[in-house]
Design a protein that fits this description.
Blueprint lengths: L17 H23 L3 H25 L7 H20 L8 H22 L4 H24 L4 H20 L10 H27 L5 H22 L2 H11 L2 H14 L1 H20 L7 H26 L4 H12 L1 H4 L4 H22 L1 H8 L6
Helix pairs in contact: 1-2, 1-3, 1-7, 1-11, 2-4, 2-6, 3-4, 4-5, 5-6, 7-8, 7-9, 7-10, 7-11, 8-11, 8-15, 9-10, 9-12, 10-12, 11-12, 12-13, 12-15, 13-15
């Protein structure tokens, strides 16, 4: 599958390819399915199961993000293998609504295939790279065991199935944290761009939620709610892409070797998950709010609406701290305010609750854009620093 000259040495960069964007479409569908799973079962148990499924999808995606940052995948046999993996991801996504029910076996087997193809691709690339091969061998046990336990979970029932899911994901996620990261290598600009694009994918899920939530009842209050939803999504986009993404990309470019791999694992692979989870939860709360625009939200959708946006902000604060060693205080305060608003969001009409979330997110953006406008210009346009 490998082609001469495709492997990258060190931090050589390459552009995100159309194949990678095409590959991510399967995960777009998967994220949408998770939101549908939450809408269909708006209970605490439904949220927990939905987050387990999202965590599995995310870890599969991030594995391929590391792989595609190792070489240009849009050539030869690698392209065909990526398309095969995409087909397997599609089957995983199709099984998401029934991942803890009738489609558990399909989900487990398809997920195992996705992870197995990932390992095969990496094994092929590392044939002539002893350091990368050694790194891969250290991660194979946890990756295969985690995927295998999800297959086992499909044959269990009730709480035993959920417990096996938790164990499987713990094994998969903790494997890299307890192994030597020497030998792993990425193209840092490509890696940062890939994670920015997946944040866009998650935010796109909120746009879809607005469309679904609005439905056929296009009345003034629903339109106002849709507008407020767009304000929140735009604020979340701004907070990531205005300067924060530049900080993280720059720090990743500055790091080398094991330090770079550790930063990529912690700040990106681990801590982008809370951001994606926050957006998916907010999308669930937003869709429910638009369906019940004049009514008080139930507890779970109210928590999702405010808590989802808060989780996004807190995940971003943690990710930025690992990259910059700075605490972004206004984002932290904004997240705490959103959490404090949960009781109010459950006691007032959905439109008003959405207005409160919109006001908090907009205030954080406005403060950063105005109070730090000079620094922001320098970060975004370093050529003007002199």
């Amino acid at each position: 599958m490998s082609e001469p000259g495709l492997e990258l040495e060190g931090n050589d960069e390459h552009r995100v390819t159309p194949l990678e964007l095409f590959f991510d479409l399967a995960f777009v569908f998967g994220f949408t399915q998770v939101t549908s799973l939450l809408v269909d079962d708006p209970s605490w148990g439904g949220v927990f199961r939905g987050m387990l499924v999202l965590a599995a999808l995310w870890w599969a995606w991030t594995g391929y993000a590391w792989f595609t940052s190792t070489l240009d995948v849009d050539e030869g046999g690698v392209r065909l293998a990526m398309l095969a993996a995409m087909a397997a991801v599609l089957f995983v996504a199709l099984a998401v609504p029934g991942a803890f029910g009738d489609d558990a076996v399909l989900f487990g087997l398809a997920y195992f295939v996705v992870r197995a193809i990932h390992l095969v691709l990496y094994a092929n690339v590392s044939r002539d790279d002893p350091d990368l091969r050694g790194a891969l061998l250290r991660i194979v046990p946890s990756e295969l065991l985690g995927a295998s336990l999800l297959v086992v979970a499909a044959f269990l029932d009730g709480d035993a199935r959920i417990a096996m899911w938790v164990v499987a994901l713990a094994v998969d996620y903790l494997g890299p944290a307890f192994t030597n990261l020497e030998g792993w290598r990425i193209a840092p600009e490509h890696f940062a761009e890939r994670h920015g694009l997946v944040i866009l994918i998650a935010l796109g899920e909120s746009i879809i939620a607005i469309g679904i939530g609005t439905g056929l009842e296009i009345v003034p209050k629903v339109l106002v709610g849709a507008g407020l939803g767009i304000v929140v999504v735009s604020a979340l986009w701004w907070l990531y892409f205005d300067v924060a993404a530049i900080f993280q990309r720059t720090r990743l470019l500055q790091a080398t070797g094991v330090e770079q791999a550790r930063l990529a694992l912690s700040s990106f692979s681990y801590l982008h998950l809370p951001m994606v989870a926050g957006v998916v939860l907010f999308a669930f709360g937003l869709e429910d709010a638009l369906h019940h625009i004049d009514e008080e939200l139930d507890t779970v959708p109210a928590v999702a609406l405010c808590g989802g946006a808060a989780l996004y902000l807190l995940g971003h604060v943690a990710s930025l701290f690992l990259a910059t060693r700075r605490v972004f205080r206004r984002r932290t305060i904004g997240a705490l305010v959103l959490l404090a608003l949960i009781p109010a969001a459950a006691a007032i009409p959905a439109l008003a609750a959405l207005g409160l979330v919109s006001a908090v997110c907009s205030a954080v953006v406005a403060y950063e854009a105005i109070a730090h406008r000079e620094h922001r210009v320098v970060v975004r346009h370093p050529e003007l620093a002199d």
